[in-house]
Design brief:
The chain has 21 helices and 17 strands. The protein is α+β, with helices and mostly antiparallel strands. The strands form four sheets. Strands 8, 9, 10, 11, 12 and 13 form a six-stranded mixed sheet that branches. A four-stranded mixed sheet has the order 5-4-7-6, covered by helices on one side. The longest helix is centred in the last third of the chain and has 22 residues. The protein is globular and about 85 Å long.
Length: 647
């Protein structure tokens, strides 16, 4: 009666183990069968709903192990967990609202697609035991060769070739002929001049739901070459690989096969090439395709038996590197799990006859066990105590700032805690060092979330950027909010004395941010101080003590645009092994120049020279993501800052 409409078969008896875990008793057994586990004289049993076991399918994934959920779990939470389990995030940033659970009614003739409601509990669907995780169709707008436009809904998980077919069907287009050459269609990003790869999906190529695409007629040579050819069958010719004129060993452009071949070259190891490959791989391939190429490379033809062990060793070393970088892809429920298991079993079987292969199997097994494939560490966590042996900008006579545990929280923070909730608390009532620490922690959290895929194809400046690069947009938003806060805080002061005092305080705040190597926050504060609305306040600036005026000029010179931010680049490059936050505006500009000036493909080959440039820039941005600040969070000050800044 207490369970309402719940059917008897949906309920179960549970006993409690020694460690407090509740165990479901088998309906078909007797209590007598559980005497060993029900040790107490008067055991307590619980009656409640049985866990819901769902059989899950996902397009492009060979299968997911049955998942167990509590009956009161919301469908939206089930969706989020499944996305995390299958780790779709391995191919980029994922919005769980883009996915839905469809009840598997394939056994019913004429059944319609039925989405499970996100706000309902699983108990709302008592007889559902099989679901499919699907990417919901999205609406795209496409400009056709005749300059007209067509709007249609497409599945972003299907290959681009199928999307093109859907567009052609919608617009009633057919291939045309020029002489003996067939002109076919390609999808293009007009701004970045990026031709989308036919074999990859819109999702894997970072296409946003609001992106404007262009359907163009194109010759075969303008399209990325098909990567379906076996890696050992592809000839060594200029049609498949081009080298730089100045250095014949450096690749200028190549097919995916040739890049994988260089990555696993048994004659030379190129650490720079490896780093560039794994960082930019999502701009020209995807994990399943790359893993397939590794398997092709591993299966050396019998006619090249002398290369077998050296090449296979190189493939295993690169697999180990990939597993270390992205362990979630190879976890038990990862997108590459089934392929990995088949490969490891094959390697183990062959290893029983070939000692070298047995050693490779042990190496990969050890890497997977050490990597804890089901755990994804946060780059924000980890110990880091460091000192900045530099003279404070505030006073020439002050001692160096030591940012260790003994100086995490200053006495002034405790003095103002009671005032932070008062409406009359002004920015200069709070110590600038405490403000700088909390601002730095706020910005660093956004900085640590940045992913390489967010920097491809200048997506931050295109429609759909909120889906493709949310963390880049978050850093840009934080920059703008801090600048506006600085400017409006000073302007709202009615008295000249208070405006001048606030201006001095923000200059001192900028100095502290510089000492903490927070260049993103530093530039935001300088931007607020140099706002055109403040430039007219001549009397306010005249009341600023000379030493703070000099400090501001030094900081402005550091972050000046002259020489493509030469002073800033030099200063940031000197931060080796210490926490630092780059001013990402510099690198977004660099990436825009690289994207606009270099096509993604040259004669159908992957433009590797462009990937090297992109790698150098993104590496500079991400170099300090694993070196955290050892500052203590202050909930009171964080709440006050969020209220003031609008965070």
């Amino acid at each position: 009666q207490n369970f309402g409409l719940t059917k008897e078969e949906d309920l179960g008896l549970f006993s409690e183990s020694d460690d407090g875990e509740q165990i479901l008793l088998d309906d078909m057994k007797k209590l007598y069968d559980y005497t060993l586990s029900l040790k107490s004289e008067d055991p307590v049993l619980y009656i409640k709903r049985k866990p819901v076991v769902l059989s899950v399918r996902f397009r492009g994934h060979p299968g997911v192990k049955d998942q167990e959920f509590s009956p009161d779990t919301k469908v939206r939470d089930v969706t989020t967990r499944l996305i995390s389990t299958i780790l779709l995030a391995g191919t980029g940033v994922v919005n769980d609202r883009d996915y839905g659970l469809v009840i598997d009614n394939s056994s019913k003739m004429g059944s319609k697609v039925e989405y499970m409601k996100r706000d309902k509990e699983l108990s709302y669907y008592p007889h559902v035991h099989a679901v499919t995780l699907v990417l919901k169709p999205k609406t795209i707008q496409v400009t056709l060769p005749n300059s007209s436009t067509v709007t249609l809904k497409v599945d972003f998980s299907i290959p681009v070739s199928e999307v093109i077919s859907a567009i052609r069907k919608k617009a009633d287009l057919s291939p045309s002929q020029i002489g003996n050459t067939t002109i076919h269609y390609v999808l293009n990003f007009p701004k970045a001049k990026t031709i989308l790869k036919d074999s990859m999906s819109l999702r894997d190529q970072r296409v946003g739901r609001k992106s404007l695409l262009v359907l163009e007629e194109s010759l075969e040579t303008e399209v990325p070459k098909d990567s379906s050819m076996n890696i050992w069958d592809e000839p060594q010719s200029k049609e498949y690989i081009i080298f730089e004129e100045a250095d014949k060993k450096q690749i200028l452009a190549a097919t995916l096969n040739k890049l994988v071949e260089r990555l696993t070259d048994e004659k030379q190891k190129d650490s720079k090439f490896e780093a560039a490959f794994f960082l930019t791989m999502y701009s020209f391939t995807n994990p399943p395709e790359l893993f397939s190429k590794f398997i092709e490379r591993f299966n050396v033809p019998t006619t090249l038996s002398q290369l077998k062990i050296p090449v296979q060793a190189c493939v295993c070393l690169m697999l180990r590197e990939w597993i270390t970088l992205e362990p979630h892809l190879f976890s038990e429920q990862g997108i590459l799990a089934p392929r990995k298991q088949l490969f490891m079993q094959s390697l183990k079987n062959e290893g029983s006859a070939v000692p070298q292969l047995g050693q490779m199997h042990q190496m990969l097994e050890k890497t997977m066990s050490l990597g804890n494939l089901n755990f994804i560490p946060s780059p924000i966590l980890g110990p880091s105590v460091f000192s900045i042996s530099s003279t404070s900008l505030d006073s020439p006579s002050s001692s160096p700032i030591n940012m260790n545990a003994s100086s995490i929280t200053s006495p002034t923070m405790f003095a103002v805690k009671k005032r932070m909730n008062q409406e009359n608390t002004e920015v200069y009532d709070i110590d600038e060092s405490d403000l700088a620490k909390q601002l730095t922690l706020m910005i660093y959290e956004d900085y640590c979330r940045l992913k390489p895929t967010e920097f491809f194809n200048s997506v931050w400046s295109k429609p759909g950027a909120e889906d493709l690069c949310p963390n880049v947009l978050s850093m840009i938003s934080a920059f703008n909010k801090i600048s506006n806060w600085v400017c409006t805080t000073i302007l709202k002061m009615h008295l000249l004395r208070r405006r001048s005092k606030a201006l001095v305080h923000f200059i001192k705040l900028a100095g502290q941010l510089r000492l903490m190597n927070n260049y993103h926050g530093l530039m935001a504060v300088i931007g607020g101080i140099n706002n055109s609305a403040l430039q007219r306040l001549k009397w306010t600036k005249s009341k600023v003590p000379k030493r703070y005026g000099v400090m501001l000029k030094e900081l402005e010179a550091l972050m000046a645009m002259e020489g493509s931010y030469k002073n800033y680049r030099t200063a940031f490059a000197a931060n080796i092994g210490v926490p630092a936050i780059p001013y990402i505006g510099v690198y977004l500009t660099d990436l825009t120049f690289v994207e606009d000036g270099n096509p993604n493909f040259k004669d159908g080959l992957i433009n590797w020279s462009k990937r090297k440039l992109v790698h150098n820039i993104i590496s500079t941005i991400r170099n300090h993501q694993t070196i955290p600040y050892n500052f203590q969070h202050s909930p009171e000050l964080r709440e006050w800052l969020n209220k003031m800044i609008g965070g």
